[in-house]
Model the fold of this input.
Amino acid sequence: MTRPADPARLAVDRSTPLDEVVAAVRAWLEEHLPRPWLEAGRAGGPAAVREVRPRAAYEEWYPVFAASGLVVPTWPVAYGGLDLPVAAARAIERELAPFHLGRLNPLGLNLAAPALFAHGTEEQRLRFLPPIVRNEEVWCQLFSEPGAGSDLASLATRAERDGDRWLVTGQKVWSTWAHVADFAVLLARTDPDVPKREGITYFLLDLHQPGVEVRPLRHLTGDVDFNEVFLDRAVVPDTHRVGGVGEGWRVANATLSGERQMVSGAGSGGVDRIGGRGVEHVIELARHTGANTDPAIRQELARCYAEERIRDWTNQRVRAGVRAGRAPGPESSVGKVHQGELNQRVQLLAVRVLGAAGAAWPGPGLRPEVRGMLRSRANTIEGGTSEVNRNIIGERVLGLPREPDPYRGVPWREVPRS
Ligand SMILES: Cc1cc2nc3c(=O)[nH]c(=O)nc-3n(C[C@H](O)[C@H](O)[C@H](O)COP(=O)(O)OP(=O)(O)OC[C@H]3O[C@@H](n4cnc5c(N)ncnc54)[C@H](O)[C@@H]3O)c2cc1C
Done:
């Protein structure tokens, strides 16, 4: 039986002319967005919305947004979207932008979903994608291990078949939001007797079970974002395996390139998520503190501003390619390296512009700019380090020789590991 259409869902389809889509979005915002948010967005854009909209209130309201289909306009209706063409999605984004309607569950949308679209079964997509869109099931990523980060394919967590299910044992680390997540995309070794990339399988793991222990890690800013995850015969039904047994590396690549796009700002995640605010905020700050009269600061601001534009254009190229049906290529590595290093410079500049107020301030907790600067230190590590992404660019864009690997073709079991 098909579910009746939700009254909050936008009444548009692929054949709706663009101007009618835009009119429908405006009418939807007028009807469904809480008045103070609507007025703030109209008067002062995202910055004004941030002032009047606590995060908890946004999370509470979010199901109304999800029911509209506007969270993922290009996705099929059955998965929670509106099945609209890319041009309509772009017009929608422009309409929504002033109201700062960020997508919740970014790891579900950007990491799990690409793998399900590329390699999942229809049953898996119908089961998992709609609750991702509605933020009812929060996702995290269990890939990295204490001995497998940059060289992810050397991972040692093992999955053993037990009838129509798998038992997973091992340790994962740096697992962002695992302490609040319900499900994880997981890589595990199913065959140690073949070369490392050939013996990995990709699973969807339910985190609410006795074989899963999540231990939070506190980072530099004092916040808890990521965790260690210990797996002791955690159960995954075979129906939650994505792709063939031993084909997990191929499936993982859909997740990893989604991650690079997200972290580079080309996906639905934004600069806000990865440390601090954009350069416009720093320019505003410099006006406020008077630092904008310092020629060295002005030069640095201009340079960051120009680079942010370049980054946006690079991201737009990646997005346009993906929307046109091309797999994101090594250009997402270019964006990842640039975004990570640029954001660190922007956040450092924000603290420099603050002067003494960036070193001491009244009240408890960190100043947002200081928190942003500290958080941004991870930008050149998370989602693949800058060094490793430069290797990818060197090999796949510049055509340089591959990095030597003395263990190429050797069974994983025989490769020495730390
Ligand atoms: C904030 C944050 C969030 C994260 N979230 C997640 C998550 O949710 N899920 C998840 O699975 N993982 C997550 N990670 C892990 C992340 O993917 C790894 O930290 C990253 O891939 C690097 O691995 P590593 O830490 O083991 O460093 P290593 O691989 O040990 O690298 C150490 C150093 O050696 C360099 N290096 C390594 N190999 C090479 C090479 N071939 N050539 C040149 N230099 C090299 C690296 O660049 C680095 O400087 C997160 C990390 C951070 C910082």
